[in-house]
Each structure stands twice: as C-alpha cells, then as structure tokens.
Input
Amino acid sequence: MGNDDPDITFNKQGICYHCDRYELLAKTRLINPSERSSKLNSLIEEIKLTGRGKQYDCVIGISGGVDSTYVAWLVKKYGLRPLAVHLDNGWNSELAVANIQKTLEKLGIDLHTHVIDWEEFKDLQIAFLRASTPDGEIPTDHAIFALLYQTANRLGLKHVITGTNVATEAILPKKWGYGYFDWRYIKDVHKRFGNLKLTTYPHFSLLKLAFYVFFKKIRMVSILNYIDYEKAEAMHVLENELGWTYYGGKHYESIYTRFYQAYLLPKKFDIDKRKAHYSNLICSGQLTREDALKSMEEPVYPSDLLQQDRAYVIKKLQLSEAEFNEIMSAPTLTFEQYRTSNNLFESAKKLVNATRRYIG
Output
C-alpha cells in the first residue's frame, strides 16, 4: 500500500488492519471445514422447507461474473429452485449477456431482468462523478440489493443467495467503496449534483432494510462461505460445464465498471483496486504475494481498449470533453463530505452481529 488508504494502521507485529479484519471475518463468517457439510445441508433443507408450495424457493442475483454464475451453478447442484434477478443498467458487455444466457439456459433457471430507467440512472451516475468520491459504482450496487429484497418480498421468499464472500472480497478500504446500503448518502449526492427526480430507481431506506430483515425475516445468504471457494477452480467449472467465458478482470463484465476501475480510479484517485483483490486472494491462500506483485506490474487493462471505453462512456453519458476533464480534475473527496447514515450503520452492524444467530 502507498498513501491510497488514508485509514491504514498496523499492529505491533507490523500487520495492517486489512489482514486483521480478514482474519476476523474468516473466523466469524466462514463455516468451519469440519461443519461445512452438515451446515450447508441444513441451510439447503431450510430453503426448501420455507419455499415449499411456491414456484421458487430462493432468489439469486446474476451479472455474468464469476461469483454470481458459480452461485447459480451451485444452487442447482443442491436441488434448489431459484429465480435469477438481473439489473440491466445499460452497461452490460456483450460477453456478460452471453454468459447469463448460456448459464441460465443450461441450468434451467428462470430470469427476471429489470431494465432501469436510463435517463434517471444516467443522471445519478453523473451526480456521483461530480461528487468526486471513489465510490461511483454505488448507484448500481444499491439498485441490485434493492431489487433482490423487493423480489424476495413480492414472492414471499425468505432467502436471497448472493455471491458475496470472504475468500475473495473481504478486503476493501472503506473510503474506496462506502455506501451501497446508504440511501441517505445517495440522496444527498443526487440532491447536490443531480437534475432529475428518482421516481423509478430501485432503492431502500434504513427503515425499509430493517423491515426486510427483522419483520419479513429475509436472509441474505453468502453460500460461498459454506464451501471451500477458490476462484480459479470456480472458473474452471464454469468454463467446462457451462461454456462460460472470462471477461478479463474482477467485475469487468460491465463496461462502466471496467472503465471506472481500470481508468477513472487510477487516474483520478490513484487507486488500483487490484491491490484489494490480490490481497484478499493472498489472505485466503489462493495467490502468493510474489505472484501478486508480478501481476501488479502489468497494465490494469490494454491501453487501446481503455481509450475506447473512455470515448464510449463520455458519449453514452452525453458529457462533453470539457465536462469530463472538469470531473477528472476536481479535488478528490470521500463520503465523509456528504450526509450519510454511517453512524447508524455502525450501530446496526453491532446489533446484527449480536443477533446473528436469530436472523442468520
């Protein structure tokens, strides 16, 4: 790490807080290997029981990426009846669309695609660009979780199975990616920099989240924490059994995400998210530090493709070169410069952890 994580601290042994946090999450959220089989079987039976008599017994998100595609393969392997939910935010790559189609056809999984209102969403994305914080992917992430909760609630289901996991994505500096659950933060950014009303944008407040979790008892299940999840092995399975094709980088199935992580973050914020991704794989024993450092010497993405993405994004967002350059040169900020529910979320996390055995 350089100076790109302003909050980084080290313990007396010289270990940074990211590694300490990984160890804590691994201890509290990864299922012990000796208990994996029994607890996974119990989870599967619980999902089948609560979904009995319904068309589906769970909801899964699908993006065409590794984690969500592997979840789709896994739940069918265990005999579940999922409904796949996909957010079409206007930035899908052709490869992502093909991956989704091949996967769900081969597995026999129904798909619900929510096509977001482009004008509203474009306005929100531009607002986050003008906010000058490094968490500009929040509009997509928040909408995805909102759709998953809304769909489960509408269908009367108790389980949303996600691809979030400790083994590959527990490490991320807070100021790089805060806020995907924080509707107050999103509203404040949009109020300051947006122009249109968000009348159809999928969202949830903190109160609505509490309604889903505590009243409706909808569980977000990180099923990959119940198994020995290895990224390379998962990709091998998907390629050989589903005809899935790799797209070149973590979350690069989206053109905007690819542009944001490979162009905007390094150039404007001096942030290379590969540091977090590779560090997580090192902590989980899937990558050596030496190999990670070698990979960090390689370009984030081919420069010619990045220039194509840059031109495409500017045109699609209907920004002028001057407007985009103004965004790129504006002073960098963090979520702390905006109104958020951060303190409430920190308290809520303590409550959730204290009641985890009751709510899952």
Remarks:
- The beta strands are 58-61, 82-88, 110-115, 159-162, 219-222.
- The chain is about 55% helix and 5% strand.
- The mean pLDDT is 93.
- Residues 17-249+335-359 form a domain with the Rossmann fold fold (CATH 3.40.50.620).
